[in-house]
From TrEMBL, chain A:
GO-annotated molecular function: RNA binding
Record's subunit section: Component of the RNA exosome core complex (Exo-9), composed of EXOSC1, EXOSC2, EXOSC3, EXOSC4, EXOSC5, EXOSC6, EXOSC7, EXOSC8 and EXOSC9; within the complex interacts with EXOSC2, EXOSC7 and EXOSC9. The catalytically inactive RNA exosome core complex (Exo-9) associates with the catalytic subunit EXOSC10/RRP6. Exo-9 may associate with DIS3 to form the nucleolar exosome complex, or DIS3L to form the cytoplasmic exosome complex.
Domain of life: Eukaryota
Compartment(s): Cytoplasm; Nucleus, Nucleolus; Nucleus, Nucleoplasm
Keywords: Acetylation, Cytoplasm, Exosome, Nucleus, RNA-binding, rRNA processing
CDD domains documented for this protein: RNase_PH_RRP41
Natural source organism: Chanos chanos (Milkfish)
Assigned GO CC terms: cytoplasmic exosome (RNase complex); nuclear exosome (RNase complex); nucleolus; nucleoplasm
Family, per entry: Belongs to the RNase PH family.
Primary location group: cytoplasm
Protein name (database record): Exosome complex component RRP41
Domain Exoribonuclease phosphorolytic: 21-152, 155-219
Gene: exosc4
TrEMBL record, chain B:
One matching Pfam family: ECR1_N
Family: Belongs to the RRP4 family.
Alphabetical list of SUPFAM superfamilies matching this protein: Eukaryotic type KH-domain (KH-domain type I) (SSF54791), Nucleic acid-binding proteins (SSF50249), Ribosomal L27 protein-like (SSF110324)
Name the record gives this protein: Exosome complex component RRP4
Keyword terms: Cytoplasm, Exosome, Nucleus, Phosphoprotein, RNA-binding, rRNA processing
Assembly notes: Component of the RNA exosome core complex (Exo-9), composed of EXOSC1, EXOSC2, EXOSC3, EXOSC4, EXOSC5, EXOSC6, EXOSC7, EXOSC8 and EXOSC9; within the complex interacts with EXOSC4 and EXOSC7. The catalytically inactive RNA exosome core complex (Exo-9) associates with the catalytic subunit EXOSC10/RRP6. Exo-9 may associate with DIS3 to form the nucleolar exosome complex, or DIS3L to form the cytoplasmic exosome complex. Exo-9 is formed by a hexameric base ring consisting of the heterodimers EXOSC4-EXOSC9, EXOSC5-EXOSC8 and EXOSC6-EXOSC7, and a cap ring consisting of EXOSC1, EXOSC2 and EXOSC3.
InterPro entries linked to this entry: Exosome_cplx_N_dom, Exosome_RNA_bind1/RRP40/RRP4, KH_dom_type_1, KH_dom_type_1_sf, NA-bd_OB-fold, S1_RRP4
GO biological process, one term: poly(A)-dependent snoRNA 3'-end processing
Originating species: Chanos chanos
Subcellular location: Cytoplasm; Nucleus, Nucleolus
From TrEMBL, chain C:
Organism in which the protein naturally occurs: Chanos chanos (Milkfish)
GO molecular function (one): RNA binding
Family stated for the protein in its record: Belongs to the RNR ribonuclease family.
Superkingdom in the source lineage: Eukaryota
Subunit structure: Component of the RNA exosome complex; within the complex interacts with EXOSC4, EXOSC7 and EXOSC9 of the exosome core complex (Exo-9). The catalytically inactive RNA exosome core complex (Exo-9) associates with the catalytic subunit EXOSC10/RRP6. Exo-9 may associate with DIS3 to form the nucleolar exosome complex, or DIS3L to form the cytoplasmic exosome complex. Exo-9 is formed by a hexameric base ring consisting of the heterodimers EXOSC4-EXOSC9, EXOSC5-EXOSC8 and EXOSC6-EXOSC7, and a cap ring consisting of EXOSC1, EXOSC2 and EXOSC3; DIS3 associates with the base ring of Exo-9.
Protein name according to UniProt: Exosome complex exonuclease RRP44
Gene assigned in the entry: dis3
């Protein structure tokens, strides 16, 4: 029996989207009072929560202190109930550590860390439900949390995945599409300057296809940035209205 | 066992009428270009991106002559000389304490900036250095004043006044520093029977009004006397009132706290934080504040 | 765009998991009709005047078939008459799930612009998506989805202002579904009703597949098969190990026996024997089935009986007789532990692999009957019962028939007529049949493919010269069999100043003309190889390329891909160079001509010198190769002399091998090996290579047994040992013995296959004793070589790469296709030879020839006639004669017939004749004439054919 058909001849994907369409994105900022910044995002069925503490004095090992900029500390974890099969270790496994590292790299590219020498910024993200594109949901959630915390950034960081099926790039893959074989590329972009914060792909892809795939991912990131922008502005207005006096 | 469960209600949409209040405000998000005119000076919350003045935080643009800043909605405490703060000792070092004050870096309280028992003119000896922990140890809360600001933004504190010093029994409430209104005094003995220190850094200390000024304690004596129930109830109520005000982003100062306290009297303390009760209390408080202003 | 969300929850067996998936329902899916103004479809597919003349539907209408109609009546839907059909996504998905070939066919129909088939994505449409209800089965839900979509269409179309009478008609064979549809006010017909109502085309009715409704009438047969188990039970059984899953392979010689190849872990696979009609349980050749092993005491050995289902009609009496015969044969042999094979019975079919079968109609004895039996050309396929009114016209014609189903109370599967190919016995028809049966794509090249050919007149451009080595000055020549027009290799050899020799192999640069990914490339990849039949060539690439632009003809400038070595006089390679080049061949020679030049000492021109140099080196190379253990095998090959006018075979001769044959071969091998090394070095993951695995020792059993009967020992420890012992195996006064032995050895070998280096670890080529090998030298006739050319071109920076070339999975898929096509091409070639042999003997009457026994079976011997390279079976059992006494000894193996023992390699004389009694399977009949065994052997034929003989002895 043949595997699932990821893209039908009519151009529809498993969940009814077209190749370049994103999933429904919903987000909220400032979901926790005790953290400096926090945000919650839903990209389809992928749900992520991010909290930001800092900048604050470097805790733990002093040796990490940077004298010219702030240290960014990321921790990625997945709730045990986030996947179809219950996860044994919510964090600390190899995948999570790798993801933490990627997030750190992403935000070091975007946050103006040189403004806060000898400080530390903590970003904690947790996947509450996983349906593909965990990395991008984390990046997007963390961006919102950083904005909420008032930490200066060059631009938003928007991330999105893109896959490659039957010579067509698909934007924003869901879990079924990610696991259906084929290549997945995760891109984190500073949408206004179009600078790439991080790009990651761990399957083989022919060079000729790369541009197409990158373009699809970048387009998806820009689409996402519009949504995030809307969320931030909405939040900004709501809060400003409350503190108008 | 019956439990009182509540689901969060959808955040109310801001009406277009309230939006009109924002007309005068210039709101930006990170990456927004504020101006490409090179005649301006770059202030906080902005950076230069290819000759363009760009916002790096989400917030409101403030313009002072040529200086353009963006004030974020929410940020860590940016201390200035003279600010009253409440902080917690995190570390005891040579001749100094490190104090967590909700700043980007821990503040410093030098041994030379505290009043030691025995009078102001006492020399600091090596013995004092060794017994620093007897005065203040990790975890202690203090009230202090910003003495100076270091180059990297860290604060230097002093407690050279009898108002300042170690805090004893009471309740700490954390709010955003931007919600604390700067006033002549941040120490208030509220008429409702409790006292409050409104730290500019957003750390607010509620404590029973002391009976008499205990001069000789020098700020390092903490009374371990049990606090009467009535005082405790007042403090609890005040604590909830502060949270209510903070949740609705109402500036905190003695009057607003007091009005809020009074508005809440018709409800039980435990009910104050229920959303509908909160709304009601806030409405009443706002009204009274407006009457007072108007 | 509206995006609303619903959740589809699924549980999967093996630990219940809740899977939540999003499903976006859309409002921008158009109905695809020309009349509709509401939908913003730019290129509507469905026509406004969708008229198929029908008694039932006098108005224009669109058809909506349900899943079963599509699966069962695909032949009807494919008819050009049927147009304007809406295929619902639900239907398409179900079809995809249930039958891959039909899915492909329906997709082809959808892509065909003339057919006006439209796919409506109802599952993603806001108004036609439905949720499965509590207690509703998946099938019922799908049926309901189809009804809902049909309903939506009828309402949607009625809203269009100029729709007129346009309606949608639902086709379903499901009674329940039909009733429900009628209730909801839809126009609904059964497929039969509808097709029968079509006015213009009565012949469509024949193509109707028999459906379950009608099967009731055809009962009465006594054979009742056990019920097939449902899929869920089968899967559970496979999981628990009580059942085994495998591919069903019917026995060619015995219709009551089959093997099931069970795919085990890794490479291991086991065989399960299945015997008897009931145990076979309606499985058809190539089906994927589930088998249950019988208890060990019921295990049997494979019978060596040859049994053909000759029953003339439905009558089953003969069946039982035949079955008895098998049983007798089985019982006669004491159960020997060693030969017993795991035996089982088929309990269910996991996947049918039915395709349309070629064959002939077997007319019913009852004249007016519309039900007839169809006998497929492939003996492994059971006969099929079909219904047709054209029986009399179809008699004597080759037809194609598709199987529809095999109910458990029917002796034969039910099927329907697809098309007629022409009259049987006719050479064109028979060739067509063998091409179809072997799945050889042989249709003329489509316009799309031809559009990618270079424009004529074509010439080499300046740009070409710039990037290519100019080798036009070299004395290059080609050596090929006579009459060859697709010359893909040419050679040169010259002495260098330092005393070394420069040898060049120049291969036609086909990849220059066939660019990756275009229609021409896809067609070539799909064909995989050129198929050479007797007197006919099915080209892989269009003739303009194969016989002209790519063919390295003499005295024209051609593009080539050259492999140039510098060698010393001992044929040791000093350096190797690959380059794209331009050459100008000085001569196209045949093997014989080249041989003549080499031998003729008076000739001393450049070409001859070059040839002599090559020949000398080739001998050294060959010697070295044989030293390493390369095998020289043999198979009887014959060539037909074809009459140029009638294209009938007039004579046949066995292929003769000359020194020059081996000279060309030697350099081709060298080039292939050099290229294989190079591309593997460059692309260790995706090099296309060819391997020939060493056969398992058990394969040699027959060879060792046969040799030991003559007192010889064959060593099989290594290729080298085998080659040596074959060389030493000579029998005094029996010169042909060695050849026979080599023929046997050939049959012990494994198939050589293409593979992708990233997907395998064993690269060895056993037959050539080379650690690595590929195909580089025949790009005109093999697609594998084109890929190798491209890889090599990338490796030397002469060409750019493209994605699929570097994708090892796509490469592996390509290899599978190439292997399949090659195998089929070989079979087709053999079948073509067999066909021509028959035609040849048709004109010859009865001949008496000398032959050797190649194999001994339980009731027959297989005889090889060296003169014709013909192999045939001599049966000792005949229906109309009492059987002679037969006793079979496994060990010999010997068959004793009436006291006369037959051993392998025994020389016998047989009469050869064409048996046309069964026009379907004309066959060469052999009968024993010497040694004379009373009641078994036949008398010598009259001397009449002798007159023709001199012609053969030439």
């Amino acid at each position: 029996m043949a595997g699932v058909e990821l893209l039908s001849d009519q151009g529809y994907r498993l969940d009814g989207r077209k190749a370049s369409e994103l999933r429904k994105v919903q987000a909220r900022m400032g979901v926790f009072a005790q953290a400096d910044g926090s945000a919650y995002i839903e990209q389809g069925n992928t749900k992520a929560l991010a909290v930001v503490y800092g900048p604050h004095e470097v805790r733990g090992s002093r040796s990490r202190t940077m004298h010219d900029r702030a240290v960014i500390n990321c921790q990625y974890s997945m709730a045990t109930f986030s996947t179809a099969e219950r996860k044994r270790r919510p964090h600390g496994d190899r995948k999570s550590s790798e993801m933490s590292l990627h997030l750190k790299q992403t935000f070091e590219a975007a946050v103006l860390t040189q403004l806060y020498p000898r400080s530390q910024i903590d970003i904690y993200v947790k996947i509450l439900q996983s349906d593909g594109g965990n990395y991008s949901a984390c990046v997007n959630a963390a961006t919102l949390a950083l904005v909420d915390a008032g930490i200066p950034m060059r631009d938003y960081v928007c991330a999105c995945t893109a896959g490659f099926v039957e010579d067509t790039p698909l934007a924003d893959l869901c879990h079924a599409e990610e696991s259906g074989g084929g290549t997945t590329l995760a891109l984190a972009l500073l949408p206004r300057s179009r600078h790439i914060a991080l790009v990651q792909m761990d399957a083989r892809l022919h060079q000729d296809h790369l541009d197409m795939l990158m373009e699809a991912a970048a387009e998806a990131c820009r689409g996402l940035s519009k949504v995030l922008d809307g969320v931030v502005r909405q939040h900004l207005q709501e809060v400003s209205v409350l503190t108008r006096d | 066992m019956a439990a009182d469960m509540r689901l969060p209600t959808a955040g109310e949409q801001i009406s277009s009428s309230s939006l009109s209040l924002l007309d005068g405000k210039h709101l930006v998000v990170p990456g927004d270009v504020i101006t490409s005119d090179t005649g301006f000076m770059r202030g906080h919350g902005t950076y230069m991106d290819e000759e363009k003045l760009t916002a790096s935080v989400a917030g409101e643009v403030e313009r002072v002559n040529k200086l353009i800043c963006v004030r974020p909605l929410k940020t860590r405490f940016n201390g200035e000389v003279g600010d009253v703060v409440v902080g917690r000792i995190t570390e005891v070092q040579q001749k100094r304490w490190k104090v967590e004050t909700n700043s980007r870096l821990d503040s410093v309280l030098l041994l030379s900036s505290v009043n030691l028992p025995g009078g102001e003119l006492r020399r600091r000896s090596a013995e004092d250095e060794l017994s620093m922990r007897d005065y203040l140890q990790e975890g202690d809360l203090i009230s202090a004043e910003v003495q100076s600001v270091f180059a990297d933004g860290a604060l230097s504190l002093h407690t050279r006044s009898l108002k300042y010093g170690k805090l004893g029994q009471g309740v700490l409430v954390l709010v955003s520093p931007s919600l604390v209104k700067r006033q002549k005094t941040h120490f208030h003995n509220l008429p409702c029977g409790a006292s409050i220190i409104l730290g500019s850094n957003g750390y607010i200390w509620l404590y029973p009004t002391p009976g008499q000024q205990d001069e000789e304690a020098g700020g390092y004596y903490t009374s371990m006397e049990p606090v009467p129930l009535s005082d405790r109830e007042v403090i609890s109520r005040l604590r909830n009132c502060l949270l209510v005000l903070a949740a609705h982003k109402i500036l905190l100062y003695d009057t607003s706290v007091l009005y809020c306290f009074e508005s809440s009297l018709s409800h039980q303390i435990k009910d104050i934080l229920k959303p509908e009760v909160m709304d009601e209390i806030v409405m009443k408080t706002r009204q009274r504040l407006m009457e007072q202003e108007g | 765009m509206l995006k609303s969300k619903t959740f589809v929850k699924k549980t999967r067996s093996g630990g219940v998991m809740k899977i939540v998936r999003e499903h976006y329902l859309r409002d921008d899916i158009w109905c695809g009709s020309e009349v509709c103004v509401e939908c913003k479809d730019e290129t509507p597919v469905l026509q406004k005047d969708a008229c198929i003349e029908s008694n039932l539907c006098t108005f224009p209408h669109y058809l909506i078939p349900d899943t079963n109609v599509v699966i069962q009546q695909i032949d009807i839907l494919e008819d050009p008459l049927i147009r304007n059909v809406i295929i619902l996504q639900t239907v398409l998905q179900e079809v995809r799930h249930r039958s891959a070939p039909i899915y492909k066919r329906i997709k082809d129909a959808i892509h065909d612009k003339e057919k006006h088939f439209y796919t409506f994505t109802n599952e993603h449409h806001r108004e036609t998506f439905i949720e499965r209800e509590q207690g509703e089965s998946a099938n019922d839900r799908n049926d309901r989805a189809i009804r809902v979509a049909a309903k939506w269409y009828s309402e949607h179309l009625s809203k269009a202002p100029d729709a007129g009478d346009l309606k949608v008609v639902l086709l379903t064979n499901d009674r329940d579904n039909k009733e429900k549809a009628e209730k909801s006010g839809l126009i609904v017909y059964k497929c039969e009703e509808y097709v029968k109502s079509l006015i213009a085309n009565p012949e469509l009715v024949d193509r109707l597949a028999l459906t379950s409704d009608e099967q009731n009438e055809i009962t009465g047969s006594r054979v009742v098969f056990p019920e097939h188990l449902p899929l869920s039970k089968i899967q559970a059984g496979i999981k628990s190990g009580t059942f085994l899953q495998g591919t069903f392979h019917a026995n060619r010689d015995n219709y009551l026996e089959a093997k099931v190849y069970v795919h085990g872990e890794g490479d291991e696979s086991t065989e399960v024997l299945v015997q008897g009609l009931l145990n076979l349980n309606r499985a058809v050749h190539q089906d994927v089935v589930a088998v249950e092993l019988l208890p060990r005491e019921n295990w049997v050995a494979p019978s060596s009986v040859v049994l053909i289902d000759d029953a003339q009609n439905d009558e089953d009496a003969e069946e039982e007789e035949a079955e008895k015969k098998v049983r007798k044969a089985l019982d006669s042999k004491p159960a020997q532990g060693s030969t017993l094979k795991p035996t089982g019975r088929v309990v269910g079919i996991i996947k049918r692999n039915w395709r349309p079968f070629c064959g002939m109609l077997l007319q019913s004895h009852i004249k007016e009957s519309t039900r007839h039996l169809f006998t497929p050309a492939d003996r492994r396929i059971p006969r099929i019962r079909i219904e047709t009114r054209q029986a009399s016209t179809l008699e004597g014609q080759r037809i194609m028939v598709a199987i529809d189903g095999w109910p458990k109370n029917s002796r034969y599967p039910n099927g329907h007529f697809v098309k007629s190919l022409g009259s049987a016995g006719d050479k064109e028809t028979e060739t067509e049949v063998l091409l179809l049966e072997h799945d050889v794509p042989h249709l003329p090249f489509s316009q799309a493919v031809l559009s990618f050919l270079p424009k004529m007149p074509w010439s080499i451009t300046e740009e070409d010269l710039k990037v290519r080595a100019d080798l036009r000055h070299l004395t290059v020549c080609s050596v090929d069999p006579p009459g060859c027009t697709d010359i893909d290799d040419a050679l040169h050899c010259r002495e260098l100043e330092n005393g070394n020799l420069e040898v060049g192999v120049h291969i036609a640069d086909v990849s220059h003309f066939i660019r990756p990914g275009n229609a021409l490339d896809q067609e070539a990849a799909s064909r995989g190889t050129t198929v050479y039949l007797c007197g006919k060539r099915i080209d892989m690439v269009p003739e303009l390329l194969s016989s002209n632009l790519c063919s390295l003809r003499s005295n024209v400038e051609r593009l080539a891909f050259s492999c140039i070595w510098e060698m010393n006089q001992n044929a040791e390679i000093i350096s190797t160079r690959f380059t794209k080049s331009v050459i100008n061949s000085k001569a196209s020679l045949t093997y014989a001509e080249a041989q003549m030049r080499i031998d003729d000492t008076s000739m001393n021109d450049d070409i001859t010198k070059s040839l002599r140099g090559l020949n000398k080196l080739a001998k050294i190379l060959k010697g070295r190769r044989i030293e390493k253990g390369a095998l020289t095998l043999s198979s009887p090959e014959v060539r037909f002399h074809i009459d140029s006018e009638t294209h009938d075979p007039i004579d046949l001769q066995t292929k003769e091998l000359m020194e020059t044959n081996s000279m060309v071969e030697e350099f081709m091998l060298l080039a292939n090996i050099s290229v294989a090394q190079k591309i593997y070095e460059e692309f260790s993951e995706c090099a296309l290579l060819r391997k020939h695995p060493a056969p398992p020792p058990s394969n040699y059993d027959i060879l060792i047994k046969a040799a030991s009967s003559k007192g010889l020992v064959i060593y099989i420890d290594s290729a080298k040992a085998l080659a040596d012992s074959l060389n030493d195996a000579q029998v005094e006064g029996f010169p042909y013995f060695n050849t026979l032995l080599r023929i046997l050895a050939t049959r012990c070998m494994m198939q050589a296959v293409y593979f992708c280096s990233g997907m395998d670890s064993d690269f060895q080529h056993y037959g050539l004793a080379s650690p690595i090998y590929t195909h580089f030298t025949s790009p005109i006739r093999r697609y594998s070589d084109i890929i190798v050319h491209r890889l090599l071109a990338v490796a030397i920076n002469a060409d750019s790469t493209y994605p699929d070339l570097m994708d090892k999975h796509k490469q592996a898929a390509l290899c599978n296709n190439l292997n399949y096509r090659h195998k089929m091409a070989q079979y087709a070639q053999r079948a073509s030879v067999a066909l021509h042999t028959q035609l040849f003997f048709k004109n010859r009457g009865i001949l008496n020839e000398e032959g050797f026994i190649l194999f001994v079976r339980k009731n027959a011997i297989i005889v090889l006639i060296p003169k014709f390279g013909l192999e045939g079976t001599v049966f000792f059992e005949n229906k109309d004669k009492p059987s002679p006494r037969l006793s079979f000894d496994e060990e010999g193996p010997t068959l004793t017939v009436e006291d006369h023992p037959f051993h392998m390699f025994d020389k016998v004389k047989v009469t050869i004749s064409l048996d046309s009694s069964n026009i379907q399977h004309q066959k060469i009949r052999m009968a024993l004439s010497e040694p004379v065994i009373p009641g078994v052997s036949v008398s010598m034929p009259e001397t009449e054919p002798e007159a023709k003989k001199p012609k053969l002895d030439r």
